[in-house]
Amino acid sequence: MLRLPASLFFVTSWLAAAITSSETPESGPAAKEPSRAPATKLQFLDVAAQVGLDAMIFCGGRDKDHILESTGSGAAFIDYDGDGYLDVYLVNAWALDEEPSSVRQKGRNRLFHNTRAGRFEDVTDAAGVGDDGWGSGVCAGDYDGDGRMDLYVTNFGPNRLYRARGDGTFEQVAERAGVAEPGWGAGATFFDADGDGDLDLYVVNYIDCTMDDVLTARRSNKWRDLAKVMAGPFGMRGGRDRYYRNNGDGTFGDATEESGLTDLAEGYGLGVLASDLDNDGDVDLYVANDSNPNFLYRNDGGGKFTEVGMWSGAGFSGEGEAQAGMGVDAADYDGDGLQDIFVSNFARDNCTLYRNEDELFFEDVSAAAGIKQITFAPLSWGCAFFDVDHDTDNDIFVVNGHIYPQVDQFPEFGEHYRQLPILFRNDNRRFTDVSRHAGPGLQIPISARGLAVGDYDNDGDLDILVTGIDSAPMLLRNDSIGLEHWLEIRVLDARGSAAVNAFASVTADGVRQVREVRSGSTYQSQNSLVMHFGLGSATKVDKLTVRWPDGTVTERRDLHVDVSVTITKP
Amino acid sequence: MKTLAVTTVFLATIFAQQRPDPPNQQMDQATAETYEHLATAIIEIRATEDNLVKGILMHHHARASHHLEAALTGADTQHHLEAAADEIASIANEGDKAVQAIRQRLLKAGHHHHTDSVTKEDYIFIDSKEKASLLALAGKVGKMAKTAAPDAIRGASMELGKLFADAIAPE
Predict the structure, then answer these.
(1) How far apart (Å, rounded) are the C-alpha atoms in residues A138 and A128?
(2) Beta strands A150-164; A221-223: pairing state
């Protein structure tokens, strides 16, 4: 899209009076079908190297003898310095040598500052966020309520909590805060679980094992009776997920059991989503488990949860099978005002789209929606809903990559270690694979894992950040042609931080859409905390409603299109 | 049973070691006998596991039935129906979450017959079709929690009875 000065996009300091009440945003089906501009041509270009994102992301050795070497690491689109431009945080793991297995290089996490001039510069050392643990994931949230976004990094080994000081630097306080979880952390999310106004933390743990296990592992499983591949996760002991309640003084306490969040199944958890899935004003929790039923924890209020995944329809595939969940995202794909869930799964088992039937009941509509067949062959990880073509409905992007490099020795089976991503266009609630017509950036195979979505160049369309195994990241700049109108909304709490789990609904030209600000989700990654809406041909936004995490509501009317607005909680 | 098997192997080994210079024939016989004992133990372990799982299923069935009956009294209906849904789902999965964690460990010993997500094979008693039916019933009962029509609850009880009887019936 045509690039305009950033100042034109930001309409901050909205002083109109907020309408405050306990009502939730209105619901109801979209009044009109989405309409895509006939001239729209989707076009993504990988500009990572060009803009200075030159990090190499490691993940173990060449042969991938242990499952730790297969799960990769995530990334974040986060505006760490509050200058209105998205910066990039990359989580890194270690490189291993084979025979004898040993640590060749400890990869460091990297923070890249967006210079606003189309470049990123490495500010890792200055910011103090270059952890060299075996990294997995990252999520963002202002846990201490000082108006600055903090970062939580999951590791194979002690996790890290980076508290923002407000001057572009961070302080590592995980031990002091009581969240230096020592296991194999995967997905994590900040959310206000108990409705007390501060952000609590949920950490998903994958498998219990040690670095000795990793370094002494031998490939003992057979892939198609042809190649020896890494063992697991079956036979390994799953790590128990943890819930940390914010004490309100900069520390957390383990409240897993008393909150009803005990991971009795020791599921092999990887992805996590904190979202108000039943629109009742509190935040529910969904955990994507590898090779196990997924968990859906209903928030019963007061910091108590009930696991309803087993009978909600969202714990299994429609056939009643536990799948191998990796990543997870949620959004309203069918315009009924309810957020639906998308879960990425293992190879030769499709990704699953769960349609929200309200009150936390879900139906697997993967086949009917056109997802099932196309996602059967790839092994899928990071996934995200967003309106790629600005036609007022949510499309889906999924990145893929096998865990066994050995599959490349047998090309006759059509399975590849490095795989292409899939971009699904939402065509009236049925999805069409448009990946091969979406520009050169989507034709580059990597063994992808992490995925974050955000508008890093502030041009009004959403760009994509992808991490892969043993490769450089990809920054897929959205250069699509003919995209129609859009609106970006930054919702800030009274202290100036992104209001995690705030909802916004936008009505334009008779179409109502909803979005939620979220910490974590996708696969071990953090999407931009700015909400983006495609508006089709609408030339104004009739109504914008923000439902804040405390249930109060702010409304705006008659907004311009093609702008970014900031709404601050009164 | 595991202790019995280990003890059997241990005693047989000691017995074999205590005989001074046993002729080959005696050694072969002792080895065969030990293997015979071990085979018996393994078979017994399998049978014990079958009975244990059957007991688990009956436990969840009894609890599900109790909650469905309790829901009909009109007191705390939502709680009872959700609890019934949970129990039915545990029948479908041949055990609750704690059992699921144990199965994951058993897989390390090659105990693969529980691994529906990898092999898509059936459980010991519950086959894939029965599992899907039971999960659908669990969802139906969970949804009833908001409406709780007595006829619908009775219907669910009958459906559960039939599905359960079919599931544990000898193949």
Answers:
(1) 15
(2) unpaired
Q: Helices (DSSP H) in chain B: which residue ranges?
A: 2-18, 24-72, 77-92, 97-106, 116-119, 128-147, 150-168
Edge-first strand listing for the sheet containing A563-568: A10-11, A563-568, A485-492, A531-536
Least CA distance to B106: which residue of chain A? Answer: A235
Mutual angle of helices B24-72 and B150-168, in 10-degree steps = 170
Distance from CA of A298 to the nearest CA of B (A): 12
pLDDT recorded at residue A495: 95
Does the pLDDT value for residue A44 go beyond 50?
yes
pLDDT at B1 over 50: no
The Cα A198–Cα A503 span in angstroms is 17
- Say if residue A335 is exposed, middle or buried (CB neighbours under 10 Å; 0-12, 13-18, 19+): buried
Residue B49 tokens read as 């596991």
Please tell me which residue of chain B has the smallest CA distance to A323: B117
Cα A238 to Cα A79, A88, A425, B71, B104: the distances in Å are 34, 31, 36, 35, 8
Name the closest residue on chain A to residue B139, using Cα atoms: A311
Is some CB atom of chain A closer than 8 A to the CB atom of B149?
A: no
Report the mean per-residue pLDDT for chain A. Answer: 93
Q: Tell me the ipTM for this assembly.
A: 0.89
In this structure, what token pair is assigned to residue A168?
A: 């572009």
Whether B144 contacts chain A with CB within 8 A:
no
Q: In a mutagenesis test of the B interface, which of A220, A229, A311 is the best target, namely the one with the most B β-carbons within 10 Å?
A: A311
Chain A CB within 8 Å of residue B98 CB: yes
What gap in Å lies between CA A128 and CA A178, rounded to an integer?
20
Q: What is the mean pLDDT of residues A367-379?
A: 97
Query: Which residue of A265, A316, A359 is in closest CB contact with B100?
Result: A265
Q: How far is A238 from chain B (nearest CA, A)?
A: 8
Determine the average pLDDT of the residues in A115-134: 97
Q: Is B122 on the interface with A (CB under 8 A)?
A: no
State how far residue A309 is from chain B, nearest Cα, in angstroms: 9
Distance CA A207, CA A195 (A): 30
Burial of B10 (0-12, 13-18, 19+ CB in 10 A): exposed
* A-B contacts (CB, under 8 Å): 87
Could B138 and A323 be called an inter-chain contact, meaning their C-beta atoms sit closer than 8 Å? no
Residues in chain B: 171
* Cβ atoms of residues B126 and B58 within 8 Å: no
Q: Tell me whether B138 touches chain A (CB under 8 Å).
A: yes
> Using CB atoms, which residue from A264, A306, A324 is nearest to B117?
A324
Q: Which of B117, B128, B142 sits opposite A291 (nearest CB)?
A: B117
Q: Is-contact B158 B91, C-beta < 8 A?
A: no
pTM above 0.95, yes or no: no
Q: How confident is the model at residue B148 (pLDDT cuts 50, 70, 90)?
A: confident
**d(C-alpha A475, C-alpha A167), whole Å:** 26
Which chain A residue's Cα is nearest to B99?
A265
Q: What angle do CA A244, A523, A532 make, to 5 degrees?
A: 95
CB within 8 A of A286, min separation 6: which ones? A272, A273, A274, A275, A277, A294, A295, A296, A297, A309, A314, A328, A330, A341
What sections of A30-184 are H helices per DSSP? 48-51, 124-127, 174-177
